[in-house]
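Researcher: I'd like a structural prediction for the single chain below. Treat it as a standalone chain; there are no partners to consider.
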Amino acid sequence: MRLNLVEITVADLPQIQVIDQACLGGFWSLEGYVQEIERANSYLIAVMNAEKVILGFGCLWAILEEAHITMLAVRPEYQRQGLGKYLVWGMLAKAASTGLEWATLEVRSSNQGAIALYEKFDFKTIGTRPKYYEVTQEDALVMWCKGIHHPEFQQNLEKWHLEITAAIALKGWEI
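Model: Treating it as a single chain, here is the predicted structure.
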């Protein structure tokens, strides 16, 4: 089965909201997603299969020289199959292709799976935001990846793409 990274459109939002609710508890409203699609500095991408089903999505903001990954979610039944890696790779590739210099994000301090994922893409923890998550009062780790505009990073992107392609192929998918 073929998987593609696609830009999210308004027509995709019902599927996005289902994933948002299942994974993030309703992070943004429908209107919030529409605003993100309309913003020039916001990139929403999704992993979509050949049947046009969205399996996961991410959001990246371009702020001056910074790529800020604001969201990453994969349908629960498709987690731990390499789709999160594919999405992070896609967001970092977009950031690098637009000339951004570094990437940053916040992640729950208890989310060891996500932390390990980001570390695979050379993100380093640079700080903590105490009680960042309002409902749970959990701390967020601030993670940072520098030099995404350098040629060496482009080489890493190519290497990661090969690794992701091979890992996803083991699950029966093609990218």
